Amino acid sequence: AKKHQDPAGAYFSIDEETKFQRQARLEQDIQHALKAGQLQLWYQPKVDARTHMVAAAEALLRWKHPEYGWVSPEEFIPLAESNRAIINIGRWVINQAIADASCWQQRSGPIAIAFNMSAIQLFDGQLLPTINNALARHQLNPELVVVELTESVLIDQPEFALSVLQQMIDAGLRVSIDDFGTGYSSMSYLRDFPVHEIKIDRSLVRNVASNPAGAVIVNTILSLGKNLDLEVVAEGVEQTSEAAYLSTKGCDLLQGYLFSKPIPNPQFMERLDQINSP
Ligand code: C2E
Ligand code: CA
Ligand code: CA
Ligand code: CA
User: Fold this and answer.
1) What is the rounded (10 degree) CA torsion for 253, 258, 262, 268?
2) What is the pTM (predicted TM-score) of this model?
3) What is the per-residue pLDDT across 4-48, written as a single tens digit (0 to 9) for each?
4) CB under 8 Å to 257, separation ≥6 — which residues?
5) How far does the centroid of ligand 3 lie from the alpha carbon of residue 220, in Å?
6) SS (H, E, C) the chain
7) Ligand 4 center to residue 179 CA distance, Å?
8) CB 45 near ligand 1, within 6 Å
9) pLDDT (tens digit, 9 = 90+) per residue, 39-71?
């Protein structure tokens, strides 16, 4: 790629320059995306490993940018964190997800609703009131709400994180550790933090049935979960062999393209009608 030189003397390629411009543009635009109606919440089922009934759904943000089209949350969430747009977006996610879950409950019975939470949101003093207000407004049981956090969120400010988690537990919410088995993985927080669920990262789930070392790691996580009385979810399940293996080994819930990609709420409700109808 053609090289440029900036006034400070650093070189960067055209590719990096356009990537940088795109990021700057997205960081600007994410601040208005909510008001402009460009954000949607899609849902991916977490199914019972034995019956394959939908037990829960994870809410996943989708952004349709007017010029760039669909932008991945992997790209825009970090930008929304850096300018704190994630605070308002996260509150909207909570309200939307709880409203939708209340609707599912009326149609098909109780389905747990999981949403993702970044550190900035966890440390926002309005987090619990936001969740509690939404639960009261939509008459949803707090035990149906699962808050998914990554380990990095807890390790940054452990004392503060612990106090927020304790408040969430006291309010009757459930806490899940996302991307388990990757990243920090100190595991001591499983002793120190009162969590209910762990989600085995999809990098460990891939080919688990045919990869002996991978299988040992997954088996170890499953027995850790069993011994600590945690719900264990496998994410990124794409193959029937993976689902069969995980189910045999006692994994509680499965999530992945094998069962469904994340889908808009109307489609999710159609699936509930098909799969979970009494
Ligand atoms: P995550 O929480 O680990 O979410 C799982 C990601 O894996 C999702 O990507 C999902 O679409 C994808 N996935 C699910 N099943 C499969 C599969 O079988 N194979 C493969 N290859 N991928 C699968 P997505 O929707 O692009 O979200 C990426 C990340 O963005 C999420 O990772 C989460 O960290 C973040 N995110 C999404 N929505 C929110 C939100 O509302 N708030 C916050 N703070 N973060 C969010
Ligand atoms: Ca997640
Ligand atoms: Ca994950
Ligand atoms: Ca992830």
Assistant:
1) -80
2) 0.94
3) 556 566 666 767 768 899 999 999 999 999 999 999 999 999 999
4) 236, 237, 238
5) 18
6) CCEEECCCCCEEEHHHHHHHHHHHHHHHHHHHHCCCCCEEEEEEEEEECCCCCEEEEEEEEEEEECCCEEECHHHHHHHHHHCCHHHHHHHHHHHHHHHHHHHHHHHHCCCEEEEECCHHHHCCCCHHHHHHHHHHHHCCCHHHEEEEEEHHHHHHCHHHHHHHHHHHHHCCCEEEEEEECCCCCCCHHHHHCCCCEEEECHHHHCCCCCCHHHHHHHHHHHHHHHHCCCEEEECCCCCHHHHHHHHHCCCCEECCCCCCCCEEHHHHHHHHHHHCCC
7) 6
8) no
9) 999 999 999 999 999 999 999 999 999 999 999
Q: Is ipTM > 0.95 here?
A: yes
Tell me, in angstroms, the distance from the centre of ligand 3 to residue 40's CA: 19
C-alpha–C-alpha distance, residues 46 and 43, integer Å: 10
Q: Is the CB of 116 under 6 A from ligand 1?
A: yes
Q: In angstroms, what is the span from residue 278 Cα to ligand 4's centroid?
A: 33
Question: Ligand 2 (ion): which residues have CB within 5 A?
Answer: 116, 148, 178
Kindly state the tokens that stand for 1: 């790629």
Query: Is the four-CA dihedral 138, 140, 144, 145 of positive or negative sign?
Result: positive
